[in-house]
Design a protein that fits this description.
Radius of gyration: 13 Å
CATH architecture: 2-Layer Sandwich
Shape: globular
CATH superfamily: RelE-like
Number of helices: 4
Helix content: 40-55%
Number of domains: 1
Distance between the termini: 35 Å
Strand content: 25-35%
Number of strands: 5
CATH topology: YaeB-like fold
Length: 100
């Protein structure tokens, strides 16, 4: 089993880490990055851990709210987990995901 980030998820993560590095420093950004890596590995080990939000992303994508105030949207695929988005929970999910 393994996990992979889509280009969009990688860009989300880069944006988050850059913001944290500018605001709170490099050490904090590195800590947050490691926390995300640990979360991705946990999702890979237990891919049905997240909840479904069929109203926003259908029944194939799962949501996990396990890293600070961020939501990880992912899809279990065969033996892998594909990380689709990494978004702050305060953002307008309807607008970001195309429904608003």
């Amino acid at each position: 089993m393994s996990y992979q980030l889509t280009e969009t998820a990688a860009a989300d993560l880069d944006e988050i880490l850059l913001y944290i590095a500018e605001r709170d420093g490099l050490d904090r950004a590195l800590h947050v990055h490691q926390t995300f890596e640990d979360a991705f590995a946990a999702l890979d080990a237990t891919p049905l851990m997240g909840t479904l939000r069929a109203d926003l992303t259908g029944d194939q994508q799962r949501w996990w709210f396990g890293v600070f105030n961020y939501t990880i949207i992912y899809r279990p695929v065969d033996e892998d987990v594909v990380i689709l988005r990494v978004l702050h929970g305060a953002r307008d999910m309807n607008q970001i995901l195309g429904d608003g």
